[in-house]
Amino acid sequence: MNENKININWFPGHMAQTLKMIDGELKICDAIVYVVDARCPQSCINPQFDDFIGRKPVLFVLNKIDLASSGVKEQFIQSLQIKTPYMVITRNSVKSGGTEAVVKALQKLLAERIQAKMSHGIVKTLRVAVIGVTNCGKSTFINNMTNKGKTQTGNRPGVTRTKQWVPITDNLWLLDTPGTLWPAFTNQQVARNLAYVGSINDEILDTVALSQALLEDLTKLQPAAVQARFGVTSFAEIAKKRGCILRGGVLDTRRAAKMILSEFREGKIGKFNLDNLL
Question: What SS3 state is found at 174?
Fold first, then answer.
């Protein structure tokens, strides 16, 4: 399709304020947990990453790994070109828990700092900021670790609007922050990838054009998966086959678009790595 039909930029005012808030909070944080969607982890990384993060150790969490194609973790690690110490772990979109693995990873990243404090008889309480794009699962990640639902969640971008410090253990506090993007997308494929997974508000998008672009991109990656799910591959054929028809035989394109986007986001079409489109 003609890429000019869908040009995406979304950076509401509260995101600029959030970036300033995060920048201030990072000064008191020992490390960062950077939650990314495993279906497009490279696309989730702020292009000003090095300037934004500085030298803070980073634990990358590839969230929703069960919805991504195999090998995505290794490919993501190969793509990283950062100067700060880091580790990469994966998380399932549905299974809770996993606190021990996260704590151990953070302790390993911060071993020298913790040891230095302990040598002076100080028990170090770790303060860690959890950041990421909108709707990548930051709050769900924290709630799964606490199993107490302490932070507000929702399957749409922009649910978390304020910072929240959440105790995980006696010696670990996590800062839940609102999701943020960046002021302009220099690569529209990155923008589309984020829109496909729901990190850009559907309400500001032409969802019909977006779903058509998604079908084309998924067909480039795994044509057999699209064919297996729908039996056909074009938007119009899928709409007809699924009964998205208005009175008079007119295609209900909005309903078809919503259905296609929902089925992709729920993993019903298959497991993908959208970064292979970059």
Answer: strand
Neighbours of 80 (CB within 10 A): 14
pLDDT, one tens digit per residue, over 75-105 is 999 999 888 999 999 998 777 667 788 889 9
For 275, the token pair is 């970064």
Q: Is the pLDDT of residue 182 over 50?
A: yes
Q: E strands, the chain, where?
A: 31-37, 58-63, 86-90, 126-131, 164-169, 172-176
For Cα atoms 217, 218, 221, give the angle at the middle one, nearest 5 degrees. 90
How confident is the model over 115-141, as a mean pLDDT? 88
Give the containing element (helix H, strand E) for 129.
strand 126-131
Q: Which two tokens stand for residue 57?
A: 């150790």
3-176 has which CATH code?
Answer: 3.40.50.300
Tell me the two tokens of residue 144. Answer: 């799964």
Between 93 and 195, the higher pLDDT residue: 195
How far apart are alpha carbons 261 and 7 in whole angstroms?
A: 18
Domain 206-277: which CATH class? Answer: mainly alpha
Paired sense of beta strands 86-90 and 126-131, if any: unpaired
Express as a percent the part of the chain with pLDDT over 90: 67
Q: What is the DSSP letter of 130?
A: E
DSSP 267: T
Q: Which of 66, 71, 1, 43 is nearest to 277 (CA)?
A: 43
Q: Would you kindly state where each structural domain of the chain is located, as residue ranges? A: 3-176, 206-277
pTM comes to 0.91
Please choose, from the candidates 53, 160, 158, 61, the residue with its C-alpha nearest in 3D space to the C-alpha of residue 102. 61
In angstroms, the CA 187 to CA 183 distance is 12
